[in-house]
Amino acid sequence: xxxxxxxxxxxxxxxxxxxxxxxxxxxxxxxxxxxxxxxxxxxxxxxxxxxxxxxxxxxxxxxxxxxxxxxxxxxxxxxxxxxxxxxxxxxxxxxxxxxxxxxxxxxxxxxxxxxxxxxxxxxxxxxxxxxxxxxxxxxxxxxxxxxxxxxxxxxxxxxxxxxxxxxxxxxxxxxxxxxxxxxxxxxxxxxxxxxxxxxxxxxxxxxxxxxxxxxxxxxxxxxxxxxxxxxxxxxxxxxxxxxxxxxxxxxxxxxxxxxxxxxxxxxxxxxxxxxxxxxxxxxxxxxxxxxxxxxxxxxxxxxxxxxxxxxxxxxxxx
Length: 318
What we know:
- By secondary structure, the chain is α/β, with parallel strands linked by helices.
- The chain folds into two domains: 150 residues, HUPs (Rossmann fold); 119 residues, Elongation Factor Tu (Ef-tu), domain 3 (Beta Barrel).
- The protein is built from nine helices and 14 strands.
- Strands 1-4-3-2-5-6 form a six-stranded parallel sheet, with helices on both faces. A six-stranded antiparallel β-barrel has the order 9-10-13-12-11-14.
- Strand 3, helix 2 and strand 4 form a beta-alpha-beta unit.
- Helix 6 runs antiparallel to helix 7.
């Protein structure tokens, strides 16, 4: 897969299929859109043409870092995934080319000029796949209706427009906003269904107060999280070490995560700590790790005594 930050490198394809959006989460709705482009390019190649599937990734600009009462180390994002994580998933979906458009200059181009100068001339677009809410160009005026009119007004249309239906979760349209709403409510199973994968966060493991170790449940303390955090509480999930030099690199380990304030010990800042079940002597400081959320198990609360907390932790890890 080729990755570019602008349109200066023209495609050498005879034909390309294009999708466009911010693709936060790359949820199952996004995946359906992307697969349409990938399948179209594959069909063109099978017909003897040089073809590409192209994702134009226009990430929304962050307005804030969602720290709330979290410690300055923890951070958190208003987005489900970083731009690089979105690109990684697109590579697994067999996309040929990703163009990351963060330059406001491209966003302010009239949609007709954007289609003609960039999509047609430089990318050799022959088909674009859009949902009802796909938008591009100045004032977000480029959409399914306006692009369809462009095609209809041409005597010899240069490209096709295909509308792709939304994916649904019950009676709700799957969107990044819906998924964040589900995560904020602790509805992990529904969020994971909409994502088509387990929601995850990544972070650098730093030294904490070692309270878990004193209780017999050592934890890995995450810092510098750049993904969206769900509601405070205790979660079951999967822990992975991401550093390739570590002995546990990418080995899935069952784990319990605690997100929030440790009220029992009068802590003031909120933390994200993960206990790897069955492991007591892991050396993790300075490593990059990931936690995949599988289930919300309980709310954070203050226990009357240390022994009561230990009894609950024993239940948490069963």
